[in-house]
Every structure is written in structure tokens, then in C-alpha cells.
Design goal:
The chain is an alpha+beta fold. The protein is built from 8 helices and 13 strands. α1 (75-84) packs parallel to α2 and α2 crosses α3. It is globular.
Length: 279
């Protein structure tokens, strides 16, 4: 079985307070974006290439964009092991083609892990309900439950409180620029002072997109631009190219621009990862 885990962008991202459990409460709107990885899961009987990594009853192989870190700690492996601890899953093969850059604030890893849960549920007819899948997904990461329904949502708590909203950017063009810069979530949060936002996010997003530039902001962006001025340059280049709104997604380091027509990628950005699509 094959599926295509998509990424997301953040429309606004506010870090409102530090929690007693060490996490932070946030406010953001998550929007699905059709930049996708490719995920295939096979039963062992369908597996032809056995010359891939074996991890606790799991055959796992990654191609595409190279990932850093121990492959045994990959979120896809964790998702398989999580369900295997509850259900009697047979030997399984997972192939992952990475097209979404990591360390980008796009939730690509979270999508991969969550889509593994969804596909295992379908492949092995585990009959796990969407609510239960969200519970499992929350054990993988704060962003993961969003990808169960995978619809535009107002997100609060540490990212696990998800309220689907009737809001869309359908028909707008999007360009995503990811510099060769990996920002860890820990580093991003270390530069943040939590605060209640000046502007209500939902009220700001109800305005014309032409008015978002000064009211829909990302707390991480404001903090990280001081450390990485290239982020601000990318954003300015997107505005100069014709974007009507541009922002960093998540904790970075990708910057996206929204426009009503397809933008011409400036020469200054062509050395970075670049992707364009329609929402």
C-alpha cells in the first residue's frame, strides 16, 4: 500500500506560556500543503528486496533527501513499534522516499510517523478509530495528531488540541524556500519569551490576506532572525518577487510565500531548496 504524507505550514505561531511539564502552550493555524513524501508499507510476503535494514521485525529503507541521526530512532520505526506493542503485527516492510526537507518547520517527520499509523491500521485492518489514532499519534510528537484528519485547524495546547476550522487558502500559490540551515526545536525555544499575542490570530486571519503582513506573525521567526539574518533576507526576497504574505513555518528554517499567481524564483534563492505548488 502506498500513501503520500504531506507537510503543513503555520499561519501565525504564538508561544503563549511555559507549562509545568516543560512543554509550551501555543496558538497557531496549521494548513496542509501538497509537498509530499512517498510511503509504502508491505507485508513480508510481498517483500522482494530483503537487503534493507531490519529493526525488530521491521524492514525499513529511506531514499531521497538524506536524513541525519540514528535510523533506529526514525519516527516511522517508532510508529511501527508503538502499534506492535499493542497489536500482533507481522514482519513488515516500510519504504520512505523523502521529498520534504527536515529541520524546516514543515512537520514532514510528524506526517511520516502519523501516516505509518494510518496505513498500518488500514493494511492490517486493526479497526483503530480516528480518536484512538490521535492518542497514538500524540505519543510520537506534538504535531502528529494534526495529520490524522489532515485539515486546516486552529491548534492550541502543546499542539495536540486541534479544532478543524472552515478556513482555506484554496487557489493560492505557495513557494517554500529552505536554506541549508537546520534549527532544532530546542534551539528555537531557547530564544523565546512566552507572551499573550497582541493580535488575536483568528481575528487577524479573518482579514484580507493583504493585511496579514503586520498582524499574523511567528514568535520563532522574530527570535531567530537575530541569530540567522539570512532568514529575513529570504523573506524580503519573496516579498520583492511578488508574495502577498511571507513567513517562517514552525520553528524554521523554511520560509514560505503566498501569492495569487506563480512567482518567478529570484536568482538569490535558487541555491536553496525551492518548491512551488497550489493550495
Amino acid at each position: 500500500m502506498i500513501t503520500f504524507p504531506n507537510c503543513k505550514i503555520n499561519l501565525g505561531l504564538y508561544i503563549t506560556e511555559k507549562r509545568d511539564d516543560g512543554y509550551h502552550n501555543i496558538e497557531s493555524v496549521f494548513v496542509p500543503v501538497p509537498l509530499c513524501d512517498v510511503l509504502e508499507i508491505l507485508t513480508i510476503n510481498d517483500l522482494l528486496d530483503k537487503n534493507i535494514l531490519v529493526i525488530d521485525n521491521l524492514y525499513f529503507k529511506i531514499t531521497g533527501i538524506e536524513l541525519e541521526g540514528n535510523i533506529h530512532e526514525n519516527i516511522c520505526v517508532k510508529a511501527f513499534q508503538l502499534l506492535r506493542s499493542v497489536y500482533n503485527l507481522p514482519p513488515t516492510a516500510i519504504y520512505l522516499r523523502k521529498n520534504i526537507p527536515s529541520g524546516a518547520g514543515l512537520g514532514g517527520g510528524s506526517a511520516d510517523g502519523t501516516f505509518v499509523l494510518r496505513l498500518l491500521n488500514e493494511l492490517y485492518q486493526l479497526k483503530i478509530t480516528p480518536a484512538q489514532l490521535k492518542e497514538y499519534a500524540s505519543k510520537l510528537g506534538s504535531d502528529c495528531p494534526f495529520f490524522i484528519e489532515n485539515k486546516t485547524a486552529f491548534v492550541t495546547g502543546r499542539g495536540e488540541i486541534i479544532q478543524t476550522i472552515p478556513f482555506e487558502l484554496k487557489g493560492l500559490h505557495i513557494i517554500i524556500i529552505k536554506p541549508d540551515l537546520h534549527i532544532s526545536t530546542k534551539e528555537a525555544y531557547s530564544n523565546i519569551t512566552p507572551a499573550i499575542p497582541i493580535y488575536s490570530l483568528q481575528k487577524s486571519l479573518s482579514m484580507s490576506i493583504d493585511e496579514w503582513k503586520n498582524t499574523v506573525t511567528n514568535d520563532f521567526e522574530k527570535a531567530l532572525q537575530k541569530l540567522y539574518p539570512q532568514l529575513d533576507k529570504i523573506k524580503k526576497d519573496l516579498y520583492n518577487a511578488g508574495a502577498i504574505y511571507a513567513s517562517m513555518s514552525g520553528s524554521g528554517s523554511s520560509i514560505y510565500g503566498l501569492s495569487k499567481t506563480m512567482l518567478t524564483i529570484p536568482d538569490s534563492l535558487k541555491s536553496h531548496f525551492c518548491w512551488q505548488g497550489i493550495l
